[in-house]
Specification:
With 267 residues, this protein is an all-alpha fold. Helices cover 75% and strands 0% of the residues. The protein has one domain (3-260). The protein has eleven helices and no strands.
């Protein structure tokens, strides 16, 4: 891989953002709405709860972490879709750019948008609703890393699906985080779920993150070994996602589908 080619993919995304306020606004607008909405919900729950339990770190913290994961995934898929929408996809792969360089560029392109969203969420949650991340301790850093890695894996997989089925299949992609959230135990312990759902939950790296965070909030401690297992699963997911993308790309090249890539489908 050549760093210059990867940097070119990242630079293109930067120029797209710099020249379009319509692309910049969603980076922080939707996360701000989420923080405000869930922030007031947690304040209301605190006011009506007789137990004295603080819902801010439990619910608002979970929303922040889950939104971060979603922004990472969407950062990858949006970088891919920019090439599709501009009819630039075929031009990119007509160059000496390798598939590994292209995927690496997509991954690096997601860091900026997800970081901006994370910063906005941190400012709002801390300044407006009093969410203190010091309560989570140092375990917060590896937890964010696990969510970041899984978001990358899901973003690469989603891009591969759109490469195979065409841009119209993006409507299959956006609901994926919502479909995963019940299994990830974002707002409740995994023990709440039926047994068959728990089996699936243990295959999702975010479930280990949110279980650990809840233990800390309730006065316990997160298990580093358990979080490390979640990180290992995320790494395996990334490797599987990269293999899947390469497999789909080679299929598209071998069958000639890539030359007929349109705004509708690849069928």
């Amino acid at each position: 891989m050549k760093i210059q080619r990867i940097a070119a993919i990242v630079l293109r995304q930067y120029y797209l953002l710099r020249g379009s306020p319509a692309r910049v606004l969603p980076l922080f607008a939707w996360v701000a709405i989420d923080m405000v909405l869930w922030g007031f919900i947690t304040k209301y729950l605190n006011s009506v709860s007789a137990s004295g339990f603080n819902f801010v770190p439990t619910l608002l913290g979970a929303v922040l972490l889950w939104d971060f994961f979603i922004r990472v995934m969407q950062g990858v898929t949006m970088a891919f879709l920019e090439d599709v929408w501009s009819r630039n996809f075929l031009n990119v792969f007509a160059t000496p750019l390798s598939i590994s360089e292209y995927v690496s560029g997509l991954v690096l392109s997601s860091i900026g948008p997800s970081s901006i969203g994370m910063l906005v969420m941190l400012v709002l949650a801390t300044a407006v609703f009093g969410l203190s991340f010091f309560a989570y301790g140092a375990i917060l850093v590896p937890s964010l890393l696990v969510l970041f890695l899984f978001g990358i894996a899901l973003g690469i997989t989603a891009s591969a699906v759109m490469l195979r089925l065409g841009p119209a299949s993006e409507w299959f992609i956006w609901p994926i985080p919502a479909l995963l959230s019940p299994f990830a135990g974002v707002f409740y312990p995994l023990s709440t779920l039926p047994k068959w759902m728990q089996y699936l939950s243990h295959l999702l790296p975010p479930s280990y993150v949110f279980e650990g965070m809840r233990r800390i909030i309730l006065g316990g401690s997160a298990s580093p070994a358990t979080l490390a297992w979640g990180g290992a699963l995320a790494v395996v997911d990334i490797l599987a996602a990269c293999w899947f993308f390469v497999h789909i790309y080679r299929h598209a090249v071998r069958t000639g589908l890539i030359a007929r890539y349109s705004a509708e489908s690849l069928s």
